[in-house]
Amino acid sequence: MRLAHPPDDIDGMRDPAMSPLAEYTAKHRFARISVRKVRPLLDLVRGKYADDAMDLLKFMPHRGARLIEKVLKSAMANAEDRGVRKVGNLVVVDARGDGGPMFKRLMPRARGMAYMIRRRSAHISIGLTDLSAPADGTSDKDRD
Hints:
Blueprint: E1 24-31, H1 35-45, H2 50-58, H3 63-81, E2 91-99, E3 103-108, E4 114-119, E5 122-129, H4 140-143
Antiparallel strand pairs: 1-5, 2-5, 3-4
């Protein structure tokens, strides 16, 4: 059974470690884009169903949307590989963009000065969970 919209309590889960609710995860580390450009897009998909998030990202003109779309597809494939039947009914419980290392370059300026150019990178993490599955990890047969 799919709800009209996911519960609101998963929206505020931003821990330093991956969310304990995230069963299926995927990461794109060292993505050559600034985290500042990716975070607004991650805020859009957090808390949505996976297929709704894919539709949302597909029609966005941003380069960061293509990167997030790939990570989301990977997380959905990881869930499918682990036995989830309806991958579109998974909910994005964790969508994070963390800063990666920077390439530092020098830009020559007037009067012998130089400015630092920082080419930033990002680590993009997506975590999915199945809200229809029992939370305690037991199946219906085990409860009887």
